[in-house]
Amino acid sequence: MVGHMERRIAIRLQLINWSLVAGCALALCIGLAVTNFTLEGLMTTEVLTAPALAVAGLWLMRRGWGERPAFTMLAFAQMSCFVIFAVPLSYIGLGAGMPLQDARFAELDRLLGLDWPAYFHFAIASPELLLYAKFFYAMILVPAFGVPVVLGLTGQYIRLQQFVMAAILALSVVIAVSTLFPGIGTYFEFGLPSNTEIFKANGYGGQARDIPMLRDGTLRALKLTELGGILTFPSFHAATALLSIWSLWSIWWLRPALLILNAGMLVATPLVGGHYFVDVIAGVSVAALTIQLSKCLTAVVAASPLAVSTQSASAEPGRLADPAFGRGV
After folding, report:
1. Alpha carbon distances (Å) from 290 to 163, 164, 251
2. What gap in Å lies between CA 19 and CA 22, rounded to an integer?
3. Distance CA 41, CA 219 (A)
4. Residue 322 backbone dihedrals phi, psi, to 5 degrees
5. Which of 90, 92, 200, 245 has the lowest CB atom count within 10 Å?
6. Alpha carbon of 122 to those of 43, 83, 312: distances in Å?
7. Which pLDDT score is estimated for 311?
8. Which DSSP symbol is given to 195?
9. Region of poorest pLDDT, from 12-21, 38-47, 315-324
């Protein structure tokens, strides 16, 4: 059973996460107001699903039997709403036209002794590996759907809200850094084909198509259902890999699958996404930072006067209560 203390902390973290979502929505509104970008597709099924999940989650939260699916649905709603606001915001950011950093990223790879063209030619010379590369690159969908389901339905509410918070913060950092230090990607920098008879870098196609149009001003009408991932540095795929492993590590029987799937995603990300190796390193670093931030904020919430008074009231007389952090922090 989930303890009252753990549930209370999780709800407070949930409110903080909603505040982060609202902040992103405000940033998007400001971005649209001060630029000539326009946004279309707000009333599509894909967009309306997120608030529908939020309403359903709030309804279930009022029923004792529905608490676990409620936390799951609300986590889905938070992440979905944030993505709806964050993706067009990333387009607006790249539309600022800051100097491209592709040459610098490539040079950083070389300084680290990492040869991206050699990595590309090795992969192309091994066609049997290309299908695995695409499969592992697509594993970014697993944490987006699997983590809320597993953590929500197993009652790990604190860890669920920490995961949502860390993911939101990570994507925010990635958007901010990519705005200041934009790059189109490795295929652009090295003049290598991203679309061949045996391989197509699906993750790279969106950024190669949209970033030049954002920079020259020809792309200003943003259709929500047609926007894709165009962020290069840091890699959000790499950040998601670490977030996924950390969030579910307490479930021991999932560890082998977590390591295999996410290690595969890290290896495939430079090839399928057209990322530099430093993009991957930076993405993992961002995830590590936001994980620590989410844990620190949880400790602050747990130590707040409201949480302490709740804990004291529920403790047995004569015993010092211990916060239910075993699965959460």
Report:
1. 9, 10, 21
2. 5
3. 16
4. -115, 120
5. 200
6. 45, 35, 61
7. 44
8. B
9. 315-324
Under a CB-based contact definition with an 8 Å cutoff, are residues 206 and 229 in contact?
A: yes
What does the pLDDT look like over 253-288, one tens digit per residue? 999 999 999 999 999 999 999 999 999 999 999 999
Within 10 angstroms of residue 240's Cβ, the number of other Cβ atoms is: 26
> Which residues are registered as beta bridge partners of 40?
223
Structure tokens at 22: 């609202």
Q: Is the predicted pLDDT of residue 327 greater than 90, yes or no?
A: no
In Å, what is the CA distance from 159 to each residue of 20, 216, 257? 17, 43, 19
What separation in angstroms does the CA of 226 have from each of 173, 185, 238? Answer: 23, 20, 23
d(CA 245, CA 294): 15
Strand partners, 200: 195
Q: Which helix (H) or strand (E) holds 73?
A: helix 67-94
Residue type, position 230, single letter: I
| DSSP state letter for 40 | E
pLDDT given for residue 32 in this prediction = 95
Give 39's strand partners. 222
Of the candidates 53, 81, 80, the residue with the CA atom closest to the CA atom of residue 69: 53
Alpha-carbon torsion 202, 231, 276, 219, what sign?
positive
CA distance 325 to 216: 51
Q: Residue 319 above 50 pLDDT?
A: no
Tell me the average pLDDT of the chain. 88
User: What's the rounded Cα separation, in Å, for the pair 62 and 43?
Assistant: 28
Interatomic CA distance for residues 281 and 172, integer angstroms: 17
Residue 271's nearest CA partner among 121, 142, 152, 148 is 121
Report CA-CA distances (Å) from 316 to 312, 313, 321: 8, 8, 8
**Separation CA 200–CA 205 (nearest Å):** 9
What's the rounded Cα separation, in Å, for the pair 11 and 213?
A: 42
